[in-house]
Design brief:
With about 120 residues, this protein is mainly alpha-helical. The chain has a domain of about 70 residues: Orthogonal Bundle (Arc Repressor Mutant, subunit A), CATH 1.10.10. The chain has 6 helices and 3 strands; from the N terminus they run ααβααββαα. It has a 3-stranded antiparallel β-sheet. The longest helix has 22 residues. The chain is extended, with a radius of gyration of 19 Å.
Length: about 120
Amino acid sequence: MQDLILISISVHELKAIIEQSVKKSVQEIVQNNNLIVPSSLQEKEKSSLYLNIQQASQFTHMAIATLYDYTHKKKIPFSKIGKRLLFSKKELTEWIQKHRKKTRYEIDQEADDWLNKNK
């Protein structure tokens, strides 16, 4: 019998996962086949460059309260227009990547490289 993993996700999280997967697949198809995306689709992508707090929560899989806390402590990139918080998808992605933790293997590899270099 196969190993079975059960997880619980909201409908919004599932929708976000599916949307991201479909967008990524379409982008790969477009790039690999040198296709031109209609300008109406390009405009729609541009219009979704910024996310409100709910969308940022779905995008990052973080609680809204956590995002509010991080903005208050200036731990996360955001813009504020009046009382409205906006988050750049690009900046959020870069922020998430910047906080990536290295695996044990990567740490061990760096240590080995350093030792070999400094013998």
